[in-house]
């Protein structure tokens, strides 16, 4: 009864707060947590981190394993440490506290090796750092500083193709040019010929002439990206040496580019390649991580889990037509979303019981989430909230946390400079030179969003905080609470290591009331929640959870 009175009192305070525009920091530190007797206690740290108010805070419970919260960085556009306008490794190091403070404990760096292109997905030298980005010593420093902060570092390892300017390709081409007409290459004389797909016939439209010879080479993405022949034993030995080079330097994982293109649509071959490389890396570091790009639906992704490598990016959830953005804009129901989550669990685990899903909303190949959601802040937040409640290791593309914009289908426009500030140009990069000018974000720069507790950035922080308090979110086995999964309302439980939480979703535009009596959530109380703004609370009273529009609630039996 006492608890109920508190609820009524708090609901009244809440209503008054709303009417009087109660958003300022002095009032919102606690007290929004009606419905849970323990909730009014706010850990001491929130006194210094006023941005992390609202919701109910518990001790961090971060497990040191390969379930991580990843932040994807395009180094060129991230942070420039030396004033030349080009983002660099030292710039990433300078921003590690920003990344860590948001709640991330993993970073994926897009390619950092020497390359003739701005994006660097065509590698000239696999054992070096592109001069634009810095030096090997800078990289070692970055690794060290990451590890000091318990951040794991994953780098892009592009083995589907190299650059035409790679010494391997140059040597192979020169050798073939020197062959007499009709002669066959001798791999003893030039092993590099075996590294690529050379042919005397133009096998298809993706074969290009080796000038001054009777040979063609395959470049399935682009003429300047010759495909590597991953069946070649010499190349495999070379790739192992390269993997060792980076692992010895402290790299914690590889992001495998274009894994379904190693041999076009040859799942058996491609999964064997992933398994072979991952097995080797695991010998060097038993905790080694790998996440692969298989840009396909969930059934193909399932097939790739047969590689027994930990993670595949979950493309079924991603991009403008993926399930997260569709749910956030009201075109896909919460009930269907949790069903999809359960089916990933069933499908993926069948092929690899140790799989770690890798959900994401967008990456460097996709239009920004704020564009897909027509810059509606509540929907941008909702998308982030749905992502951050997913199983596995979520990947957040830099700038997503401030709702940055993109424009059209041009890749450069998806990789624009991180917007740190509108007043201070320190660290600001020029970004890709071919990007269109004048693409403006609808939302404030990072420095302003840090100070605004109701910003997208602080919403992300609250979501990440919930992940870091509740290891069940990433690791738990999902069971649907079927009777509560209706249209834009859904409920699941996640069980991990003998501990179970409930997650309630309201993705609708309306406040809803969810009666949890007689359900699997019945004995639970509110453990934390994610609302659009910090002056909105989720309450539990007499077995009924009241949820504001677009909110997510974590429940647990304490
Ligand atoms: Ca620079």
| CA radius of gyration | 25 Å
Distance between the termini: 19 Å
- Summarize the biggest pleated sheet: 8 strands, parallel
The amount of beta strand, in percent, is 5-15%
By DSSP (H or I, 4+ residues per run), the number of helices equals: 16
What's the total count of β strands? 19
Unreliable stretches covering 5 or more consecutive residues = 1-54
**What is the residue-averaged pLDDT?**
91
Q: Structural class, please?
A: alpha/beta
Q: What ligand species are in this complex?
A: calcium ion
Give the CA-based shape. globular
Strand order across the biggest sheet?
A: 10-9-8-7-3-2-1-11
Percent helix, as a range, is 25-40%
Folded structure, characterized:
It is a single chain. With 558 residues, the chain is an alpha/beta fold. 30% of the residues lie in helices and 15% in strands. It has helices spanning 2-19, 45-48, 89-94, 96-102, 136-148, 167-178, 233-248, 267-284, 298-305, 323-328, 334-351, 369-372, 377-388, 446-451, 456-469, 472-475; strands at 70-73, 106-109, 152-157, 198-199, 207-209, 216-218, 253-256, 289-292, 311-314, 358-359, 395-397, 477-480, 489-496, 499-506, 512-515, 525-530, 539-541, 544-547, 551-556. Strands 10-9-8-7-3-2-1-11 form an eight-stranded parallel beta sheet, covered by helices on one side. A five-stranded antiparallel beta sheet has the order 12-13-14-19-16. Strands 4-6-5 form a three-stranded antiparallel beta sheet, with no helix packed on it. A hairpin with a 2-residue loop joins strand 13 and strand 14 (499-506). It is globular and about 85 Å long. Calcium ion (CA) is lined by residues 80-82, 84, 86, 88.
């Amino acid at each position: 009864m006492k608890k109920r009175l508190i609820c009524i009192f708090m609901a009244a305070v809440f209503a008054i707060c709303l009417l009087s525009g109660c958003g300022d920091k002095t009032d919102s530190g606690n007290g929004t947590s009606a419905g849970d007797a323990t909730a009014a206690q706010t850990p001491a740290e929130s006194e210094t981190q006023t941005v992390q108010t609202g919701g109910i805070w518990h001790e961090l419970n971060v497990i040191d394993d390969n379930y991580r919260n990843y932040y994807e960085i395009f180094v060129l556009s991230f942070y420039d440490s030396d004033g030349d306008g080009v983002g660099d490794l030292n710039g990433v190091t300078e921003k590690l506290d920003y990344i860590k403070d948001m709640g991330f404990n993993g970073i994926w760096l897009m390619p950092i090796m020497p390359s003739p292109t701005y994006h660097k997905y065509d590698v000239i030298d696999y054992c070096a750092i592109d001069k634009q980005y810095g030096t090997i010593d800078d990289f070692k420093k970055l690794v060290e500083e990451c590890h000091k902060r318990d951040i794991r570092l994953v780098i892009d390892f592009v083995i589907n193709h190299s650059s035409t300017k790679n010494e391997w390709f140059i040597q192979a081409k020169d050798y073939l040019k020197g062959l007499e007409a009709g002669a066959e290459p001798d791999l003893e004389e030039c092993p590099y010929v075996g590294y690529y797909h050379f042919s005397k016939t133009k096998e298809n439209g993706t074969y290009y002439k080796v000038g001054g010879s009777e040979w063609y080479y395959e470049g399935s993405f682009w003429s300047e990206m010759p495909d590597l022949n991953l069946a070649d034993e010499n190349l495999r030995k070379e790739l192992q040496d390269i993997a060792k080079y980076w692992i010895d330097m402290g790299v914690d994982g590889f992001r495998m580019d274009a894994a379904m293109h190693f041999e076009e649509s040859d799942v058996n071959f491609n999964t064997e390649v992933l398994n072979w490389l991952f097995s080797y890396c695991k010998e060097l570091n038993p905790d080694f991580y790998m996440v692969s790009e298989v840009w396909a639906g969930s059934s193909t992704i399932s097939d790739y889990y047969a590689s027994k490598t930990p993670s595949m990016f979950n493309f079924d959830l991603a991009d403008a037509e993926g399930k997260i953005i569709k749910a956030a804009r009201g075109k896909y129901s919460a009930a269907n979303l949790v069903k999809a989550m359960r089916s990933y669990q069933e499908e993926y685990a069948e092929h690899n019981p140790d799989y770690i899903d890798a959900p994401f909303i967008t990456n460097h190949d996709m239009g920004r989430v704020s564009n897909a959601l027509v810059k509606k802040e509540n929907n941008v937040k909702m998308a982030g909230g749905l992502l951050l409640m997913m199983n596995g290791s979520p990947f957040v593309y830099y700038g997503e946390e401030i709702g940055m914009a993109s424009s059209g289908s041009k890749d450069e426009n998806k990789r624009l400079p991180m917007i740190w500030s509108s007043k201070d140009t320190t660290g600001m990069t020029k970004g890709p030179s071919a990007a269109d000018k004048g693409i403006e974000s609808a939302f404030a720069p990072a420095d302003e969003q840090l100070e605004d507790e109701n910003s997208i950035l602080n919403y992300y922080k609250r979501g990440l905080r919930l992940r870091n308090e509740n290891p069940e979110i990433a690791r738990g086995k999902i069971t649907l609470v079927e009777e509560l999964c209706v249209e834009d309302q859904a409920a699941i439980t996640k069980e991990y290591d003998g501990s179970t939480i409930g997650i309630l979703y309201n993705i609708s535009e309306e406040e809803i009331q969810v009666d949890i009596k007689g359900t699997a959530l019945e004995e639970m109380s509110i453990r934390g929640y994610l609302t659009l703004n910090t002056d909105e609370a989720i309450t539990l009273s007499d077995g009924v959870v009241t949820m504001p529009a677009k909110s997510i609630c974590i429940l647990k039996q304490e």
